[in-house]
From TrEMBL:
Annotated ranges, domain UspA: 3-135, 145-279
Classification via Pfam families: Usp
Family: Belongs to the universal stress protein A family.
Organism expressing this protein natively: Cryobacterium cheniae
Superkingdom per UniProt: Bacteria
Protein name as it appears in the record: Universal stress protein
C-alpha cells in the first residue's frame, strides 16, 4: 500500500465535498493526494477531436482544483492525473494500492438521479481497496462515528478504521451489531423454539470486535450497541447525522460486486452521511489480478 489518497474529480459539487474530506483525512498523516479525472471513452462513436478536447478540459479542471486544495492545505502534496476509459473501471484500477479512494455522490432518494447516484456505489463495489463516499450536501455539525460489526475479517478491519477516525476527530465511536430472530416459514401455529433475544455468542462477537481499542485509544468514547433488526435499517438509522458510517466489504468476486442486496451497497445508495467501505488488506495476488491500471493521458 502506498501513501496516496486518490480522489475522483468530476467537476460536480459532490466531487468538491469528496476532495475536502480527503484533505481532512490526509492532513494529520501527511499523505499525498492524487486528483483523478476519467474522460469517458466508452461511447461507441465520438465526434472528431472530442477526446483531445475533453482531455484538455480535464487538465484545466484538475489544475484549478489542485490550486484551490493547495491554498487550503499548503503542507500537503497534490498530484493530478487524467485517465481515459470507463469512469468506474479506470478510476478503481488506477487506485489499486492507494490507501484510500474518495468519491462524491448524491443520495438515491426515490430513484432521483438514479444513474449518477449508483455510480459511486459501483465504484465502491468494484474497487479492490477501501472507498469513502461523501454526499454532496454533507450535514454540518454531524456527530459520532458508527461502525457495523458482524464478526468477519472485513468487519474487524472496519472497526480498526472507524476507531482511528473517531479518535482523530474526537468523536464517540458506536459499534453496532444487529441481531434478529429468524422468521419461521411454517404456519403461525407451529411451535418453534426460536431464541427471542441475543445470547452470549452475539455479545461475544461485539466484544471481540472492539477488543484492545481502549488500550490503543485511551481517550476514545466507545458505545457498544446490540440492536434487534436488519443491519441495513439499523445502520442507516444510527448513521443519519453522523460524521462517518463505516462498514466492511466482503469482497468483489464475480456478480457479487453488483449485488444491490449487500449491506454496504445499499448503504452507499442511501447515503445517510459520509460512508467508508473498508476491505481487509489487499494481498499481492489480489493486487496483481486487479491489474496495473490504465495509462494516464
Amino acid at each position: 500500500m502506498d501513501d496516496r489518497v486518490v480522489v475522483g474529480i468530476s467537476g460536480r459539487p459532490a466531487a468538491r465535498a469528496a476532495l475536502y474530506w480527503a484533505i481532512d483525512y490526509a492532513r494529520p498523516r501527511r499523505l499525498e493526494i492524487e486528483l483523478v479525472h476519467v474522460v469517458d471513452a466508452t461511447f461507441g462513436t465520438t465526434p472528431a477531436g472530442f477526446l483531445h478536447s475533453a482531455r484538455d478540459q480535464a487538465h484545466s479542471l484538475l489544475t484549478r482544483e489542485a490550486e484551490e486544495a493547495l491554498s487550503v492545505a499548503p503542507a500537503l502534496t497534490f498530484h493530478t492525473t487524467v485517465l481515459e476509459g470507463s469512469p468506474t473501471g479506470a478510476l478503481t484500477d488506477w487506485a489499486v494500492g492507494a490507501e484510500l479512494l474518495v468519491v462524491g455522490s448524491h443520495a438515491l432518494g426515490r430513484f432521483r438521479d438514479y444513474v449518477f447516484s449508483t455510480h459511486a456505489a459501483q465504484i465502491a463495489a468494484h474497487a479492490a481497496g477501501s472507498v469513502v463516499v461523501v454526499p454532496e450536501q454533507e450535514e454540518k455539525g454531524g456527530a459520532g462515528v458508527v461502525v457495523g460489526v458482524d464478526g468477519s475479517e472485513a468487519s474487524l478491519a472496519a472497526v480498526r478504521f472507524a476507531a482511528e477516525q473517531a479518535d482523530r476527530l474526537g468523536e464517540r465511536l458506536t459499534a453496532l451489531y444487529c441481531w434478529s430472530a429468524p422468521a419461521p416459514w411454517t404456519e403461525d401455529s407451529a411451535m418453534i423454539d426460536w431464541p427471542m433475544e441475543p445470547d452470549e455468542a452475539d455479545r461475544l462477537v461485539l466484544a471481540e470486535a472492539v477488543a484492545g481499542l481502549a488500550e490503543r485509544y485511551p481517550d476514545l468514547d466507545l458505545d457498544l450497541r446490540l440492536d434487534l433488526g436488519l443491519p441495513v435499517d439499523a445502520l442507516v438509522t444510527a448513521g443519519t447525522g453522523a460524521r462517518l458510517l463505516v462498514v466492511g466489504s466482503h469482497g468483489r468476486q464475480g456478480f457479487a460486486r453488483f449485488w444491490l442486496g449487500s449491506v454496504s451497497h445499499v448503504i452507499v445508495l442511501t447515503m445517510p452521511c459520509p460512508v467508508a467501505v473498508i476491505r481487509a488488506a489487499v494481498t499481492g495476488t489480489d493486487a496483481t489480478e486487479a491489474g496495473p491500471g490504465p495509462e494516464p493521458r
